[in-house]
């Protein structure tokens, strides 16, 4: 797929300085630019590369004026970084704009779908599935009975969506993710053997949610596991049964959230965080990586450690912890002197 400088300038509402007909088909870092690639310059530390880059087109701020001769064609915009991000989004939309039903695939007679469906080979749509417009389902995806998926959603290869799941609009579910697996519900009998508790609830995912590769969201025992609008989940996260995650919260990879915990809005949770079950985490909470949360957390707290406590207190305590050998030596010396 090729674009000319003039076409790109039109998308970005920019101005071409150089050859408007030069074409690009790939993206590159400015220091690694080759003929046929597009790059951008926004950080002054990289300015020297614009005089040596072989990239065919470079996006720059309107204020940029070259001090030496350059070979690359410029597209001047108000903000080069934001413009490049906009272009990446546009490129991704074009790349993902597949339509049609590939074979072999299976669509239940009771399934319904909207306009511009893409259904990749070896995918499965169960009974009473409802898909909105512009839904893209890549190969080897399983969508169980009574699943609803809204408009403009993308389900990447190999994802599995169990029955009864309810997914909103503009949701991205990446490869290997599993939505609606059974929650971890078992009860021991008098002999210590475990009996499975049926998991009869579902998963609700609201609009503009991203679910990373390999992430699992368990269905509720009763009711719903709920992922509110705008939530961003990284790869390899475990969300247990009956968890609720508030709007626009972001969680990094390898975090685990145990059952029935409620997480508030606009929280930022680092990687490898462990969160116990049946607790409430407030709004705008920040949890540093590898922390352990085992209690209710108030709005706005910043935490670190396991068990986690106030971030500032943790940093001060860590300084003392690093100095413990010296302190022990000092105490031993004092005892000898006495």
Write the layout of secondary structure elements.
Elements: E1 3-4, H1 5-12, E2 15-17, E3 23-24, E4 26-27, E5 37-40, E6 57-61, E7 73-77, H2 80-95, E8 100-101, E9 106-107, E10 112-113, E11 118-119, E12 124-125, E13 130-131, E14 136-137, E15 142-143, E16 148-149, E17 154-155, E18 160-161, E19 166-167, E20 172-173, E21 178-181, E22 186-188, E23 194-196, E24 202-205, E25 210-211, E26 216-218, E27 224-227, E28 232-233, E29 238-239, E30 244-245, E31 250-251, E32 256-257, E33 262-263, E34 268-269, E35 274-275, E36 280-281, E37 286-287, E38 292-293, E39 302-305, E40 308-310, H3 311-322, H4 324-337
Parallel strand pairs: 4-5, 5-6, 6-7, 8-11, 9-12, 10-13, 11-14, 12-15, 13-16, 14-17, 15-18, 16-19, 17-20, 18-21, 19-24, 20-25, 21-26, 24-27, 25-28, 26-29, 27-30, 28-31, 29-32, 30-33, 31-34, 32-35, 33-36, 34-37, 35-38, 37-39
Antiparallel strand pairs: 1-3, 2-7, 22-23, 39-40
Features:
338 residues, alpha/beta, UDP N-Acetylglucosamine Acyltransferase, domain 1, 2 domains, 12-stranded mixed β-sheet, 10-stranded parallel β-sheet, 4 helices, 40 strands, acyltransferase, EC 2.3.1.191
Structural description of this entry:
The protein is α/β, with parallel strands linked by helices. The protein has two domains: 93 residues, Udp-n-acetylmuramoylalanyl-d-glutamate--2,6- Diaminopimelate Ligase, Chain: A, domain 1; 215 residues, Hexapeptide repeat proteins (UDP N-Acetylglucosamine Acyltransferase, domain 1), CATH 2.160.10. A twelve-stranded mixed β-sheet has the order 8-11-14-17-20-25-28-31-34-37-39-40. Strands 9-12-15-18-21-26-29-32-35-38 form a ten-stranded parallel β-sheet, with no helix packed on it. It is flat. InterPro entries: Hexapep (IPR001451), LpxD (IPR007691), Trimer_LpxA-like_sf (IPR011004), UDP_GlcNAc_AcTrfase_non-rep (IPR020573). Its EC number is 2.3.1.191. Homotrimer. Keywords: Acyltransferase, Lipid A biosynthesis, Lipid biosynthesis, Lipid metabolism, Repeat, Transferase.
